[in-house]
Structures are given as structure tokens and as C-alpha cells.
Amino acid sequence: MLRRFYELQKEVTLFLKTKGQPVTEVEDESWLCDLAFLVDVTTQMNDLNTKLQRLAQYANEMCGHIKGFFNKLRLWQAHIQNANLWHFPTLKETGMRPEKRIEFADQLEILLNEFLARFKDFKSHEHFFEIFSSPFHTHVDKAPADLQMELVDLQKRADLKAKVCGNESW
Questions:
Q1: Partner of 19 at 20 to 30 A CA spacing, among 31, 116, 140, 159?
Q2: Which residue in 105, 92, 83 sits closest to 33, CA to CA?
Q3: Model pLDDT, residue 152
Q4: What is the pTM of this model?
Q5: Residue 167 pLDDT grade (very low, low, confident, very high; cuts 50, 70, 90)
Q6: Which residues, including other chains, have CB under 8 Å from residue 114's CB and lie 6 or more apart?
Q7: Rounded CA separation 60/156 (Å)
Q8: Is the four-CA dihedral 142, 148, 154, 157 of positive or negative sign?
Q9: DSSP label of 56
Q10: pLDDT tens digits, one per residue of 96-112
Q11: Range 10-27 burial, b when 16+ CB lie within 10 A, else e
């Protein structure tokens, strides 16, 4: 919805002016810069949301989407600090005001911290997901005790490893 509003801002401004309504925000360059940044960030968050809602996913896949988003946030923060707008097409189109670099980097830091807080359980269970996503590369001693013997039995199966991992040598 934000993207659509951004795309229709000239039409919205014209409509509001015909109704005698003030349109100070839509004519303010700083506000438009904030809007463009918000459009780009929410687009990425919507993409993550769509990935997380896919059917028939395992927990390790969902964890991968979250972990990837953490990495994207860190990358975006570094890019914003360096005025690199490659991953911010709407902001690039609008033009980032120089004084906004620190503000936007700080906002990305806040968003990253919020995601880290909300998904801290994923981090604490990440090693469990590894057992299911790549059992042939998981160290047995890192597996829960009740799964270690089964993991040893599974890892000794060269036929299964060849099917899953290809023709890798031990």
C-alpha cells in the first residue's frame, strides 16, 4: 500500500489541492525521503513475510529466511552509511538527503535489534535445525544425546550420503 501511495503521490496531491486540503507533507523533500525509505524497507519485509508463509516448509528453511533477513539488514545498514542505494530503488529515485544517512542507518539498527529479540529462539535452536537440514555435515557431539546414536548410524550410510550429498568423499 505504501508503494502504491508513493506511486500516486502526484495524483493524491492534485486531489487534495482540489478539495482545499493542505499537502505540506507530500511537498516536503525530507518527508518524501522518509517515505521512499519506508517503501523500500517494507517491500523487503513483505518479501520475508511471503517466504515465511509458504506451505510445506521445515523449520530450518524458515530459520534460513530469518537468518538471511538479519544479514540483509546488516548489509543495508552498511550501504546506507556509505550512501550506496543499490538495494533502495525508491530512495534512489527520490534522492537521499545527506542528513538522512545516519537516521536511516539507526532505523535499520533498531529494526535488526527488534528482529533479533523476536527471533532469539531461532538462534538458540539453530544447531537442532542443522541436524535435519544437513545430517551428514553435523558433528555428532553437537547433537542432542538422544539423537547421537541415530545420527552416527545415518552418517555411516554411504548410499544415503551419495544420494543427498552427491559423490563427496568422506
A1: 31
A2: 92
A3: 94
A4: 0.82
A5: low
A6: none
A7: 23
A8: positive
A9: S
A10: 999 999 999 999 999 99
A11: eeeeeeeeeeeeeeeebe
